[in-house]
Write a structure and sequence with these properties.
It is a single chain. It is built from 45 helices and ten strands. With about 1000 residues, it is mainly α. Helix 36 links the parallel strand 7 (about 730-740) and strand 8. It starts with 5 loop residues before the first helix and ends with a helix.
Length: about 1000
């Protein structure tokens, strides 16, 4: 009979002990099997100390109920009297539902935790082999394996061993299990065992002595025929043994499975033979192996089978592993593989991915392995397959800063401990942090976080992941500075030779020059050097992530030399994280933006202002330019100021374009490529118009004061009028004038001619700023016609002599500078020509098609690849623009939306009017945008205009990076371009040629 109030008291005590369901716990305590101990206060306190008291109590009841009447008193007496056993047993039951299930099926196995001799504290491979010695079939092996695993888990959850020792013991147990499985397989097929020599090579975490509770055990099999046996038959026998070994460990039985044995790291992966001879392995690695395969071999360790053959294998592949860093694109290949791993994580899981996600375990392992492979060539102390041992060696050798190594060490241990506890619960292979509150609570308590386990766990996890992510970026670069900078006494530093090796591995073409730049930037005790030593590790990483790290580092040195004594510069880079990253991207993306910046380094301030990269309006630009011209003492000084504004704005536009195309750590790359192209076209066109307006004002003021004898307007045509100028485009224009009342026509014409000549001269004067070329070749009669005409002369010419191509050229005509009313009147004059009433006649259509066909055959440069020429090539800019312009001339009289100078707007209007199907419109738009971006990229990378892809490998890679292709994917880029433009050409053949 329950005493009144007794239940309430028990309920409260259970709640205080950490039980989440005191009612259910109370019922479990009333179980008959626990009658002898249910009132023992020590037991309740011990249950409350576990990771999950509810789970521990349930497991204890199941274990007690599974005991025979003879064995139950022994369990309960030992449980109450022996604190070490109680802590171990309840600790396991509170952390692992799977091991509780095992104990319920095998109720005597708890006694494996009773003895605690010296060897039990830290068992090694011999102890585990003895524990598995009596297992002669797969089921018995599973039971014996779980019994051994029980002892490891008990020491782990009681903190008798740390996370590194736990991982090492799990690897030893896996080694013993592989040996036992091979013994069972050999006993089942003695003839096969006699016909071959088979060695099992552990890879991955097993090879590195740092295994998880549940993980694929990666292996490679090496076989040789036994003496007197045909090699083919010997390898077949070895293959059968290896296959049987894998099944023994991997197949599910009444006792479940142990873990999958994965042999996919072997040469050729799943497509290659399961077992090869040593000679076959070596032939493959010497001729065909990829970089990642040598990285995997870093952890290779012979664990089972023929020990002599295993040792021969490890000895043979070791030199190949430590030569891997000399391979072309070594670092790029490793980094690309890491990015591919992250890219393949489902978006719904990336924030919970403990192993593969950013700031996860793999970030530590990749960084450490990369440093090992680079520096382990000459420093044998680094050649460890165990991550934490290798990290310690890297720190001891000066390859990693001691403070960084300590932080990384702590973070890695924490993340591995989380991984162990997550897997231990159900002995399932997972690296995802659970979402359920109760699972997080158990996980947090198992990590020793008891006050607010869920909140404390999430906070600690995010902190450690942040440390890993930061140091992963920094780890490879910081010691380079220590090689050239003054260090505190007692610090070990990277030797110049080792620093050169690392820079070369990172992709620096001239490591010696790079080291000199680092020395100039980081040496000394000045505040400038100290701040730059802080900045450079991250900057070096960003430079190395580009196609031309050397240019990035050289550019940074030049900017720092120019601005290093300016207080705001270093403060900007140190305090505004975006400014430093933006600067690194801009300096290493090509020649144009750095060249523009070097002419006025103070423009770097734009990179730290959130609004600094936004394009300015036409009104703001023109107002600034005209004000600068008005303040100048001469036309030359005025236009020099205008060109300075143009240079700064070109830099602003290029920097914004590069940063949006590359993306940053905080914001991904812009996915809307059309928006990027429009932004550049608008910005460059507007600042070109403002510059032309400034030159016009300067020329007029220098000769005539404020008023020219004739009204004068500049009409932009081609890409200028279409707001589609690129970085290297000339300004295509027409000039029109109209004599003022009372002014002689000859005088007016002479004044107009003088103004044009002076504008051209001023805009092309040799200065530090890029020239602006004005091209008037699209005027009536081309180069044979007068440079400027009156409005009446244009009207007369167009009325009598205008050709169809001239009307087509006028489709993109728009006033850009000069007399606004005159410009508007000119547009009114040409509208009937470019948008003819009732559209084009068939003769005019045939003429346009003939002209386009002739241009294709005659104007493409000799030797140019027509599939890669962005302007005149198949499906390129000319194809798309002529197709759109033909639609405009045929239908704009009836469709007002087509009356625009912009290609993409006209294409969208044609689609909206039903003149072109959706898919075909998208195809043309995609091709035009891509070709325009390639032209922009070529100018950004080379610093000079070009209509085709560069032939230089580094420049081509830089174009690829701008277009969003990772390093090593230029072939894919060219294939994509050809495929996109081929589809566009098919649409052009249909819409333009009517084929």
């Amino acid at each position: 009979m329950t005493v009144p109030g007794r239940r309430s008291s028990t309920f409260i005590r259970l709640l205080r002990s950490g039980f989440t369901d005191p009612t259910a716990a109370s019922r479990l305590l009333d179980a008959e099997a626990l009658a002898a101990v249910r009132t023992d206060p020590v037991l309740l306190d011990a249950l409350g100390a576990t990771a999950d008291p509810d789970l521990a109590l349930l497991g204890l009841v199941r274990l007690a109920e599974a005991q025979t009447p003879e064995d139950l008193p022994l369990l309960l007496d030992t449980l109450v009297a022996a604190k070490p056993l109680r802590d171990r047993l309840l600790g396991v039951l509170g952390a692992s539902e799977a091991l509780a299930d095992h104990l319920a099926r095998h109720p005597r196995d708890w006694q494996a935790l009773v003895t605690y001799e010296a060897a039990d504290l830290h068992p090694g491979l011999p102890e585990f082999e003895r524990g598995l010695a009596d297992a002669h079939d797969p089921v018995a092996l599973r039971v014996a394996y779980r019994r051994c695993l029980l002892s490891i888990a008990a020491r782990d959850v009681c903190a008798t061993i740390d996370v590194a020792q736990t991982a090492a013991e799990l690897a030893d147990l896996a080694t013993a299990t592989l040996r036992a499985a091979l013994r069972i397989a050999s006993a089942a097929a003695p003839q096969d065992a006699a016909a071959c020599r088979l060695a099992v090579i552990a890879m991955g975490k097993c090879g590195g002595n740092e295994l998880n509770y549940v993980s694929d055990v990666d292996v490679i099999f090496v076989g040789e025929a036994a003496p007197g046996t045909d090699e083919g038959k010997g390898i077949q026998a070895a293959t059968r043994l290896a296959s049987h070994l894998m099944r023994i460990c991997s197949e599910t039985t009444v006792e479940g499975t142990i873990w999958p044995v994965d042999a996919n790291l072997r040469p050729e992966g799943r497509n290659g033979p399961l077992v090869r001879t040593l000679a076959s392995h070596l032939a493959y690695y010497q001729r065909w192996a990829k970089t990642w395969e040598f990285q995997a071999l870093l952890k290779a360790r012979a664990v089972a089978g023929d020990p002599e053959l295993g040792a021969q294998y490890v000895e043979a592949i070791t030199p190949l592993v430590w030569q891997a860093a000399e391979r072309e694109n070594f670092v790029a290949d490793v980094q690309k593989m890491r990015r591919r791993v992250v890219d393949n994580i489902p978006a719904s899981q990336i924030d919970r991915e403990l192993k593969l996600g950013p700031g996860g375990l793999r970030d530590v392992e990749f960084a450490v392995q990369l440093l090992q492979l680079v520096h382990g060539r000459s420093d044998t102390t680094l050649r460890s397959g165990t991550t934490l041992d290798a990290l310690h060696a890297l720190a001891a050798g000066g390859y990693v800063g001691r403070a960084d190594a300590a932080q990384l060490h702590d973070a890695y241990r924490f993340l591995r401990a989380m991984e162990h506890r997550i897997q231990l619960y159900r002995l399932r292979r997972t690296h995802l942090v659970p979402e359920d509150e109760s699972d997080l609570r158990r996980l947090g308590r198992s990590m020793g976080l008891r006050t607010e386990p869920v909140a404390e766990l999430n906070k600690a996890w995010r902190r450690h992941a942040s440390v890993v992510r930061r140091l992963h970026e920094k780890l490879f670069y910081r010691p380079l500075l220590d090689a050239v900078a003054q260090l505190a006494p007692g610090e070990t530093r990277l030797s110049p030779a080792a620093a050169g090796q690392r820079l070369e591995a990172l992709g620096y073409a001239d490591p010696a020059s790079a080291l000199r730049h680092l020395e100039a930037l980081a040496s000394g005790v000045s505040r400038k050097a100290a701040i730059q030593r802080t900045l450079l590790p991250v900057l070096l990483g960003w430079f190395a992530d580009s196609a031309d790290p050397d240019a990035g580092l050289l550019g940074f040195r030049k900017v720092s030399d120019a601005l290093g004594k300016t207080p705001w510069y270093l403060r900007l880079l140190r305090d505004e994280g975006a400014a430093a990253e933006n600067l690194a991207r801009v300096l290493s993306a090509g020649r144009l933006a750095p060249d523009l910046l070097m002419r006025a380094p103070e423009a770097v301030a734009l990179l730290g202002d959130p609004e600094g990269l936004q394009p300015r309006t036409h009104e703001a630009l023109e107002q600034e330019v005209l004000a600068a011209v008005g303040r100048a003492d001469s036309a030359e000084a005025g236009v020099a100021a205008a060109r300075g504004v143009r240079r700064r704005e070109l830099f602003r536009t290029a920097a914004a374009d590069i940063i949006a195309s590359y993306g940053t750590e905080d914001s991904p790359a812009e996915k809307d490529c059309g928006a990027l192209v429009d932004r550049v076209g608008d910005a460059v066109s507007e600042l070109t118009a403002a510059t032309v307006a400034g030159a016009l004002r300067a020329a007029v003021r220098d000769h005539w004061g404020e008023t020219l004898p004739t009204r004068f307007a500049v009409i932009g045509v081609g890409r200028f009028g279409g707001h589609e100028l690129g970085y290297g485009s000339d300004a295509d224009v027409l000039f029109v004038h109209d004599p003022r009342e009372g002014v002689d026509e000859q005088e007016a014409a002479k004044a107009a001619q003088t103004v044009i000549a002076e504008m051209r001269r001023l805009l092309q004067l040799p200065t530090a700023d890029p020239p602006l070329l004005i091209d008037a070749d699209l005027r009536p009669e081309g180069r044979s016609g007068p440079l400027v005409r009156t409005l009446a002369s244009y009207a007369a010419y167009y009325r009598r002599w205008s050709l169809t191509w001239e009307s087509q050229a006028l489709l993109r005509a728009e006033p850009v500078a000069g007399d606004t009313d005159l410009g508007r009147t000119f547009i009114d004059l040409i509208d009937p020509l470019r948008y003819p009433a009732e559209g084009l006649g068939e003769d005019a259509v045939r003429e346009i098609r003939r002209l386009k066909a002739r241009m294709e055959s005659e104007r493409l440069p000799r030797g140019a690849d027509p599939t890669l020429h962005t302007k005149l090539g198949r499906g390129g800019l000319s194809d798309v623009e002529w197709t759109v312009q033909l639609l405009q001339m045929r239908h704009a009289w009836a469709e007002p939306g087509l009356r625009t100078t912009r290609t993409r707007q006209a294409l969208a209007a044609a689609h909206a009017a039903g003149l072109i199907p959706t898919e075909e419109a998208q195809t043309l738009d995609e091709a035009w945008v891509l070709a325009t971006r390639v032209r922009n990229a070529v100018m950004l990378v080379r610093g000079r205009a070009g209509d085709t892809f560069p032939t230089d490998a580094r420049e081509l890679a830089a174009v690829g990076r701008y277009l969003g292709y990772p390093e090593g994917r230029v072939g894919e880029m060219l294939d994509d371009y050809r495929r996109t433009t081929r589809r566009a050409r098919a649409v052009v053949d249909d819409l333009f040629y009517g084929s």
